[in-house]
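Colleagues,

For the teaching module next term, I've prepared a clean inverse folding example: a structure given as tokens, and then the sequence designed for it. I'd like students to try predicting residues themselves before seeing the answer, so please don't circulate the second half yet.
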């Protein structure tokens, strides 16, 4: 997708601090972390929002959760706990219209009052 920030990151046109990558997903450090561990998990395929996920994408989203589990273990937060957050649409605070999940942990997380795209925990 032209002019999509996360597509540019996935294509290597925009630099990022990669944590994990395979043929389908990229995981990279959030540039404004809300917790000691804060990475973004994106599919390389452009899908704007959760509402745009098609039947053909459901298996891929299941795999995304496997990647989240693997990355949480690699980052040392699987045992203590973490949040996996997806924001959908403007009222949720979605800032980049390329489906993505925030994997947040590394500290005791309080009640989530604001959207993670606005970096509140």
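(Answer key — instructors only)
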């Amino acid at each position: 997708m032209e002019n999509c920030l996360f597509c540019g990151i996935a294509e290597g046109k925009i630099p990022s601090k990669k944590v994990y990558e395979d043929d389908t997903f990229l995981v990279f450090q959030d540039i404004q972390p809300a917790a000691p561990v804060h990475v973004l998990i994106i599919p390389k395929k452009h899908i704007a929002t959760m509402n745009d996920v098609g039947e053909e994408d459901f298996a891929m989203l299941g795999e995304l959760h496997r990647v989240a589990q693997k990355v949480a273990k690699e980052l040392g937060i699987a045992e203590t706990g973490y949040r996996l957050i997806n924001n959908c649409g403007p009222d949720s605070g979605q800032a980049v219209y390329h489906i993505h999940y925030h994997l947040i942990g590394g500290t005791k997380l309080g009640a989530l009052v604001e959207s993670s795209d606005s970096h509140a925990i």
